[in-house]
Each structure stands twice: as structure tokens, then as C-alpha cells.
Amino acid sequence: MTKQRIVVVGNGMVGHKFIDTLITDDSVDYDVITFSEEPRLAYDRVQLSGFFSGKTADDLALTDAGYYQEHGINFVLNDKVVELDTNNNQVVTSSGRIESYDKLVLATGSYPFVPPIPGSDQEHCHVYRTIDDLEAITASGKVSKSGVVIGGGLLGLEAANALTNLGLETHVVEFAPRLMAVQLDNGGGALLRRKIEDLGVKVHTEKATSEITTGEFCRYRMNFADGSFLETDTIIFSAGIRPQDELARQFGLEVGQRGGIVINDHCQTSAANVYAIGECALWQGKIFGLVAPGYQMAKVAASHIKGQQLSFSGADMSTKLKLLGIDVASIGEVHGNTPGAQSYTYNDEIEQVYKRLIVSADGKKLVGAVLVGDAQAYGTLLQLLLNDMTLPENPSVLILPNTGEESSAGLGIEALPDSASICSCFDVTKGDIKQAVAAGCSSMSALKESTKASTGCGGCSALTKQVLDVELANLGFEVNNNFCEHFAYSRQELTDIIRIKKISTFDQLLNTCGTGLGCEICKPAVGSILASYWNDYVLEDAHIELQDSNDLYLGNIQKDGTYSVVPRIAGGEITPDKLITLGQVANEFDLYTKITGGQRVDLFGAQLHELPAIWKKLVDAGFETGHAYGKSVRTVKSCVGSTWCRYGVDDSMALAINIENRYKGLRSPHKIKFAVSGCTRECAEAQTKDIGIIATDKGWNMYVCGNGGMRPRHGDLFASDLDQQTLQAYIDRLLMFYIRTADRLQRTSVWLENLEGGLDYLKEVVIEDKLNLAAELEQEMQVNINNYQCEWKTTLQNPEKLKRFKHFVNSDATDSHLAFELDREQRIPAKKEKIQSIKILQLTE
Amino acid sequence: MSQWITICKHQELSENSGVCALFEGQQVAVFYCKRNADLYAVSNFDPIAQANVISRGIMGSVQEQAYVASPLYKQRFDLNTGICIDSPEFALKTYLVRIEADQVQLKKAG
Ligand code: SRM
Ligand SMILES: Cc1cc2nc3c(=O)[nH]c(=O)nc-3n(C[C@H](O)[C@H](O)[C@H](O)COP(=O)(O)OP(=O)(O)OC[C@H]3O[C@@H](n4cnc5c(N)ncnc54)[C@H](O)[C@@H]3O)c2cc1C
Ligand code: SF4
Ligand code: FES
Fold it and tell me: Which of A485, A518, A561 lies closest to B53 in CB terms?
């Protein structure tokens, strides 16, 4: 039997998918040849913009010559099919090659529409469709200062992002009155515009370009129909796409009125042995400009050729994406074309979030939705639409903040809805993690590999781990709380071992109950436990190896390897003289100076060898280390209180200073922050701190386990109207109990959420002393307080330790790789390259 | 043929952690593991964070294999091969290191 000869015109995403589908099922052999007008085989056009963040043509490739050869697929690059003869079943290419076929597959995609504007064909006018286009845009970017994108649709905004990444002043010119007119309604478009303008991109709507001429200040001048104009050096046209149906049109296949090759449910065109798939195909009057429906068509056509019966039944065009870092989603029908439809709108101008739900006339079904600024509800809403589910009684809860699914107020991980974003770098939700765990990921490393969660900035790793543990437990796995491969114990168990056996060094602990050399997980954690109990000097020889670089050099390491210097400024109160000293020191060492979010001053850019000299001056002037580098007490934020404030009911300033001096230097599972406010106006934001204290007319109210940061949590009222002594006893007990029982890197907020019995139990332990531990906990705190030392002061007195503060062990030279520049009159690290491009995450299938 | 060059005395090394040495114009991180009495020398430049910080990382082991975790973003580099365990497309250069009569000496590998 002779093989069927299949000719595939176009080797884009869909053409390749078709071939791939055909060859993965090798039951029948076909003789396949594909032609591409482009100089390369199929690549990932959806990720095209990745080209600007460093992806190469190779990274984007979906296949390679080797793979095609191995499967006997013939391919011809750089050769366009220009003639089609459906009577003789032949095609002719621009190089004159004639190929006959049994089955012909047209996968010619679409082409960018360039409006017929005089002057639009000049050297630095581009479109945004192929790798070649992007190479040309990059070349233009090098010789341009500004760029304009004509068209404010989805692709236009991607192109605008590319121009900003190339460092150009960027404009978007849109004919319609709003951005993304197809996907968004007025409100969504308006908010998107505001957000994009906040990023520095200039948006001009309702502008029709009438001609492009030579500019006065820039290369080109665009004249608009309303008489205004805009000058620019580069232009990208992104005014929509048109199906590439030229062959069909010229050689007698049926095409739609507004273009597109007409196909039936099997993707056959008007000639039965000719198929059309992907963006060139018109099904029931619709073109699908997304890759997923194209892939569906590829499968349908391949199955039909093999004599099977898949059919194409349309596709959902809902999309969710990040444009210039902004979440945008559009679901279903959003332009009010459904008779009787009603809508709910949530518009938060402060947080810049816009959400609109469109529901059927009877209020029972979802018709469409627009989300801008917060697309968390996308998954839920899409499910409701696709499954034609009945809406909840009051559909507005679907778009109101925090009520997306089950209420999550104040509850632990379990209460987070599946749509909750856990890793924002890679857009991984709790649901994604659940799925991965169900599919067999049982460790952080497996989870990272399969979801990418926590492989970016790493800021979500604790949260990711918690979701993992909860899911494993839900699936009935015993969750292994082991620290790491070196210790088969949880942090709490190790704490008990250290406390009860009075272990004082890592070596002793390793010999008692560990194996191997330790690692960056267990070492700092053990260092922290040892410090919490014995409060030794952290740079004691035996402890040196345990310290993260920050503790090791008593400063916070910065991106270039220099350190920051943060002296303690208890309660945020500082004398003018001390302020002057800070200024003098910063001046002398040319340190970048900033007021921190914790009411103190941070000096940045100190090199290792400069740290001792800097701290010498600070310690001599009466400063102490601020422990900004440690998992330890950080700051006690204050308000000025009754001393000055006309509303103050008590001396919050004195209490803040008092507390900071009492607990300074205390090492703990994670950092600890306090705040004291002088009245209920709460200017110190005490309810967002681990321990928050607010003055009342009868004493002090104590709030516990609040958190700012990544997952904010309001503190819970723990006790009211306390006198200072009782307050102090409660804090002593609560903190030592936290130190004993929390996991590593677990803030008090998360600790409480995971504490069995919750707030009530904590009150029983701390206030009612149910475990009979109060005296012991207070005494442990006292040991800590008695052993307090300013680590910098101790270090400065020890010449041996000071030797460590040199870049080289064998030379006084410094790190020649460091480079600085001036910005707003201060010294900052030299920018190595333009800030990394804003990541664009695309929805593919 | 390259030579062994002395960089410092044994006691100048830091037990179970690293120091940075200037060796023929290059920055080399030298680690001394007291637990298994081993020495390792790798380049000090973290190719991921693009900074000279490797000597300030924490030493550890994964299945008996010694590594250093960069202090900036915590990627782990095998101390014997220099290869990044977390992203094997990156690697540190490795150097030969020994102690001769209390002197720590380095030599170019290969
Ligand atoms: C300097 C400062 C920013 C500033 O310029 O103002 C800062 C800088 C850093 N913060 Fe912060 N945070 C600073 C105030 C805050 C605040 C505001 C506050 O304290 O009122 C918060 C939210 C409050 C809270 O902690 O609940 C805050 C929440 C975080 C978090 C998230 C913690 C969380 O539980 O979600 C991290 C990441 C972490 O610790 O894992 C973080 C981590 C960091 C690190 C350590 C990141 C790093 O590893 O390099 C930065 C160290 C900089 C340095 O070298 O000194 N920083 N950070 C502020 C120092 C305050 C101080 O005087 O000590
Ligand atoms: C920047 C960008 C971002 C996108 N983002 C998304 C997204 O987030 N989500 C999504 O779903 N979709 C997205 N798309 C759309 C998606 O890329 C397309 O839907 C998909 O590529 C269509 O595949 P196709 O094979 O039909 O067409 P194409 O991939 O365009 O392939 C057609 C190929 O055929 C060639 N060709 C045409 N005529 C001939 C001829 N006569 N002879 C030989 N060769 C010919 C063309 O040169 C081209 O190589 C994006 C597109 C772009 C440009
Ligand atoms: S928010 Fe905090 S951790 Fe993040 S960049 Fe600013 S200072 Fe650094
Ligand atoms: S938020 Fe997950 S890695 Fe950055």
C-alpha cells in the first residue's frame, strides 16, 4: 500500500501540533511534507515576548530538525506556498517546487493588519508576530529613544511592554475609547489604563493615525485625524490580525465575508480533502485567535484523516493574563449582548481593583465577568460558566474581597480558598499545589520541580511548605516534620533536646542525635535555638559555622555582597546629637541612608572591611546593634503618646523604649516586632505586630500574633486593661512559649493559626498557667535578658574576631568587582543591566 | 605547569566555614571541614547572584556530599565539582588545595 501523502502549509504552532499528533500515533504511516514561509520550524508564539527577557529562538522552539527527520517528516523552510490546484491536488511554492497531495492541511495562521496609512512602510515601522519581527524591533530599539504601539489590544500591550523593556519612552495609540476593547468593558478598560499609565506608559485613546511623516524632534511624526500629533522614533502596528486565507481566496475555496477559510466540524474546507486549522480557519462564522482552540482543531483534523470521528465544537475564549504585571481576566460575554442580563460591579479605586459580574436575567447563571487588578476569582468564575452552574443566592460575594469562596477570616491555611495565590512569582495557587500533591509530589523539591512554586524570589517558601504539609496530611500521609536529612526531629523536639540535655554547641547536638555535616536549613535554626536558651555570643568559634551571612558579619547582606548597618533606635526616639552622628558616619563612609519602615535609620553599602570602623564610631557614640540581621527582636514601633499628643491617654513612648530594651537581642524562630500606641487612634499600627499594645484609660490592651508582610493578619485582643507588670509577665511567657514550640521561620501569626486550641489555648497557657510553666518561662526569659550583650561591642573588643572582617584572608585588597553610581545624590550599586523585564505570564490551554 | 602557592596558615582558616583568598589575581573561596578533615577551594564569584560572596556561605552536606549554599539566594554548589546542585547549568571553578607544614596552598586545577 502506498502511503498517503499529506502536505501541511505553514509550520506554526498549530501546523506543528497537527504533525506531532499524527506521528505520536504511528499505527499508519504517512508521507508528510510541511512548508514554512519563516526561516525556522515551529516555535512558541505565545511566549514570543519572552524573547525580550532573554529567551532565545532555541528556547522558544517547539521542535527541531532532528525530531522531524527521526520521524520521517520532510520540511522546507523559507519557501512559501503560492499556488493551490484543487482539481489536480497540487501545490506550487515560490521557489517553483510542485508537490501533490492526498490530503492538504492549511495551517497558515494569521498576519498582522497594518492600516493603509501613508508612511507606514518605513524602516522603523514594525509588526509583532514572528521572531524576525522581534529581532527587527530590537535593532530599532538600539537607535531609538521613544516608541509607539498602534493598537491597545492584548497584543498591543505586550508590544508596549517590550518597548519599555528596551528602555524606550512608550506610548500606546488606540482608535477605540478604551484599552482591550474586545475583552474588557468600560470600567475595566479605564482601570487598566490608569494602572498602565502609573507604569509610565502613555496612553492615547480615540486617535486615528492619518499619516506618518518625518519628525522634528524624533525620527517620525504621526499626524492624527483630529489635528493633533505625536513624535516618535519607532512604531509597532498591532491593530488586529487577519486570517491568512490568501491561498484559499485565490484558488477557489470558500472563505468568509470578512475573511477566514470556512471549515466544518471536522475542519474540512469546501474541498473535502483540504483541511484548515488554527487562526486561518473560520468555524460557524468565528475565528479563534488563541492557541488552545487551534490545538483542538489540529487533533480533530488528524483524527479525521485517520478515519476517526472527533469533532470540533467551538472553544471558550476566556482569558487571564498578566499584562505589564497587571492581572487582567475576561470571561464569557462581557459587552451586554445577552438580553436582560444584569450586572454587579466592585470598584476599589484605592487598591485599584475592578470586578464586574454579568448574570442572566433571572440572576441564576453567570454570563460573563471582567477582572482587572485582581484576577483571583478567575478559576471559580470560569468553572461556574463552563459547567453552567447555578450561582449562589447573592452572587456579589463572588467578587467581594476575601469572600471568594469559604470565608478565610483569621483561619489557617485550610481556610484559604483554592484560588489563593501562594507563589506570586510563578502564579501558583493553593489549588495548583493541591493538584501537584495529589499527583504524587510529596516533598518541597518535587513540588518546586512540578509547579515552580518558590523557585523565584523564594519569599513564598514557608507558605508553600505549609500548604504541602496540610495537603499531605489531608491525603493521609504522615507529615514528616523533620528538619532536614541531618536531624530526624521537628524544631520543637530539637528545642526540647537542647533545653533538657543542656546542649550548647552544634557539634554536641550532631553527636547526640544527628548525621552528616548539617546544612543551611538546620545550622541557622540550631544557632537560633542555642541563642534563645543560652544567649551566647553568636560569633563564639563553635557557633560561627551556624550563622547565616547576616549574623556572621552582623549586618544584612545586600545584592552586591555589601552590608547594611542598622543601629538600634529604641522606640524610634533619637536625640539630635545621635542623629548628627549617624549623618557624620554615613558621610564619612559614603553610605546610602534611608529611614526604614521600622522607625529607624539604615545605612547601606558598607564593605566587609569597613564594618568594624563604622561600628566603632557608632558604639563610641552610644549606639548598639539593631539586630536587623537576626531572627530576633527587631523594632518596637511607637507613637508619641501622652507626652505630646492631645489625645494620648498614657506614655506609649516610655513603654515602647522599655520593651525594646527588655527584649532586644532575643533570638527566636523568626523576627519579632512590637508596637505601642498611646490611644485607640493606633498611630503605631500595633495591631499588625507580633505583640501590639494600646493604651486605655484603665491600663494597656495587649494584642498578639499580628503580622504585616506577605500575609497580613490583624492581632487578636489577648487581655485588656493590664498594668505594666502583668503585661510584662504575659509577654515573657508568650514569647518563650513561642520560642519553644514554633517551627523554624514561623512568625507568631502562623504559629497561632497552627496551634491546636488556638487563641483560647494560648490564653490558658499564658494567663491561667494551665501547664504550670509560667514561672519556668519567665525565668528562661530572665536568663536571656541577663546575658544580653551588644554583639558589635563585644566584637570590637576582640581582635581575633575582627580579623574575619576582611575581604581576603591573605591581602588587604578589596573586592574589585563592586561598582557604584550616584542616584539622587547618594551612592547605590551600579546597575548591571536594565531592570529585568516585567514577567508576562500567558494562558495557553 | 602551575605551582602550589601558599595563601595562609592553617589556623587562619575558619572551622567548618569559608574564607576568601586572593590567588593569582583571582578570588578563591577556601572551605575547611573539620568534621571530615577536608579542604575545598572554589571560585568566590556566585554566577547566579553575580557577586563575590561564596566564601561567606554556609557549608552543608546532602547525602554525604559536601556543598556550600550561597549567602545571597541560597543555591547550593557541590564543593568537589563546583556544580550547582539546584541549577546544574551553573558551576563554580574548582582549585586544588592542600596543607603542607601548616601552610594552606592552592594550585590551578588541570
Ligand atoms: C530596611 C527595611 C525596609 C525599609 O527600607 O524600610 C526592611 C528590609 C528588609 N526586610 Fe522587611 N524591612 C523593613 C521593614 C519591614 C516591615 C515594616 C515594619 O516592621 O513595621 C515589614 C512588615 C511587618 C512585619 O514584619 O510583619 C517587613 C516585612 C518583611 C518580610 C515579611 C515577613 C512576613 O512575616 O511576612 C520579610 C521576609 C522575611 O522575613 O522572611 C522581610 C525581609 C527583609 C529583608 C531582610 C530582606 C533581605 O533578606 O534582604 C530586608 C533587609 C534589608 C537590610 O539589609 O536591612 N521584611 N519589613 C525595613 C527595616 C525595618 C527596621 O528598621 O528594622
Ligand atoms: C505576541 C503574541 C502573543 C500571543 N499570546 C497568546 C496567548 O497568551 N494565548 C493564546 O492562546 N494565544 C496567543 N497568541 C496567539 C497564538 O500565537 C496563535 O493563536 C497561534 O500561534 C496560532 O497558530 P497557527 O499555527 O494557526 O498560526 P501561526 O503560529 O502564525 O503559524 C502559521 C505559520 O504559517 C506560515 N505561513 C503562512 N502562509 C504560508 C504559506 N503560504 N506557505 C508557507 N508558510 C506559510 C507563517 O509564516 C507561520 O509561520 C499570541 C500571539 C502573539 C503574536
Ligand atoms: S519590601 Fe522589604 S524585603 Fe521587599 S524589597 Fe522592600 S525592603 Fe526588601
Ligand atoms: S513568590 Fe514564590 S518564588 Fe517569589
Answer: A561
3-state helix, strand, coil in chain B (%, to 5): 5, 55, 40
Strands A4-9 and A103-106: parallel
Residues A548-565 have pLDDT tens digits of 878 889 999 999 999 999
Q: For residue range A93-113, what is the model confidence (pLDDT) as tens digits?
A: 999 999 999 999 999 999 999
* B60/A815 touch (CB, cutoff 8 Å), yes or no: no
Question: Which phi-psi region, left, alpha or beta, contains residue B14 (left: φ > 0; alpha: ψ -120 to 50)?
Answer: beta
Residue A141 contacts residue A234 (beta carbons within 8 Å)? yes
Structural domains of chain B ordered from first start: 5-108 (2.102.10.10)
Rounded to a whole number of angstroms, the distance from the CA of B1 to the nearest CA of chain A is 23
> DSSP state, A259?
S
pTM of the entire structure? 0.55
Q: How far apart are CA A744 and CA A209, in angstroms?
A: 60
Residues in chain B: 110
Q: What's the DSSP call for residue B8?
A: E
Angular region, A260: left φ>0, alpha ψ -120 to 50, beta rest:
left
Q: Please report, for residues A267, A276, A441, A842, the alpha-carbon distance to residue A44 in angstroms, rounded to integers and kept in the order given.
A: 23, 20, 28, 11
Task: Answer with the residue of higher pLDDT: B63 or A517.
Answer: A517
Rounded CA separation A284/A292 (Å): 17
What is the rounded CA–CA span in Å between residue A483 and residue A494?
A: 9
Ligand minimally distant from the alpha carbon of residue A242: 2
Q: Of A52-61, A141-150, A404-413, give the lowest mean pLDDT range.
A: A404-413
Amino acid at A376: Q
pLDDT digits (tens, 9 = 90+) for A425-436: 567 888 899 999
